[in-house]
Amino acid sequence: MKRWLLVGVGLCLSAALLWGAACGGGASGSxxxxxxxxxxxxxxxxxxxxxxxxxxxxxTPDLGEVEIGGQTVAGDGPVQAHQVQLQSLQPGxxxxxxxxxxxxxxTFTGPWHEFTTPAAGLTDFDFCAYGDTRSDAAAHRQVxxxxxxxxxxxxxxxxxxxxxxADLAGWKLFFPVxxxxxxxxxxxxxVGNHEDDAELYDQLLPxxxxxxxxxxxxxxxxxxxxxxISLDSDADQAAQGEWLRQLLAQPRPAGxxxxxxxxxxxxxxxxxxxPDAGALQYWCPLLExxxxxxVFNGHNHxxxxxxxxxxxxxxxxxxxxxxxxxxxxxxxxxSFHSVLSFARVRVSAQSLQVTALDTQLxxxxxxxxxxxxxxxx
Length: 377
Fold this sequence. Notes:
Layout: E1 5-6, H1 9-22, E2 38-45, E3 52-68, E4 71-74, E5 79-87, E6 94-102, E7 107-109, E8 113-116, E9 125-130, H2 137-147, E10 154-157, H3 168-178, E11 187-189, H4 199-204, E12 210-211, E13 218-223, E14 226-230, H5 237-249, E15 258-262, H6 277-291, E16 294-297, E17 303-308, E18 311-316, E19 333-337, E20 341-347, E21 351-358, E22 363-370
Parallel strand pairs: 9-10, 10-11, 14-15, 15-16, 16-18
Antiparallel strand pairs: 1-5, 2-3, 3-4, 3-5, 3-6, 6-7, 6-8, 9-20, 12-13, 13-14, 17-18, 17-19, 20-21, 21-22
């Protein structure tokens, strides 16, 4: 029989025992419509060949469980913001799962979802990147509905997920929109200025372990042949620069052909937010010295590609927030479109084929990134 390793289960067991005692032995029956208790989720994150992190939120504190692989795995609780990390998965397998939420009076069971772990040696897949979704759920939904048609294996978000990271109401708008993909496709965000170091950001999102405040402000994660490097434009950029220097000095992880960086505030931009001075000083010299292959930014609400030091910087800020027009000269600009938009990247062993798309899937810009001969793994 398959044995699942659940990170943190020891802490959850004591909570479950206390909850059972308070409830007189647990739930008394089915709760019917799961949306009456499960407010949103699950959201898949930090997906590797052998592990996954799941997050979801419930309307009242409850005990959370994940049913997967013919077993029901105890999660955490009683809480509202649930997170579970499952390990001992197998690479290249599709797992079907669903959530159970147990209150003092009933158990609510969510619908089935599935995710597929990356196979060993995975080199060919698509992913999407977008950002600056903030408070216009209708506009955000247009972008997501177009994005899912590209069938991405993972989705990056370049920050400003919501208008105010400390306001739960904004997250209540955000998560139902990304539910179009988030139950099966791993989601990797970086911190924007509107998240404002709010604790809800860490509590609600299944983030990879990293550095900085609460261990999630900046991080590195691997999916298939891509290493994702996420930085925080509003944290200590000098400290992150030193972390980045050490990370890039190491050999690429096994199987990694491409390094991708993302951070909210762009160093090369047409405004109205000015080029980020900290990124220019501490990060770009490292990124452009053969450190990474592609950079994603947000903060300015449009689609723009800049080229500097042989490195393409994509501002993918057309995710739903009010659009901006260009207001500053950008001598490094290669394309500019002030429309709702996102980027699709087609990954292969030989190249990254990058295409900027609008919500009608019309091509706005395209560029192909290849390794120079000296940098080929």
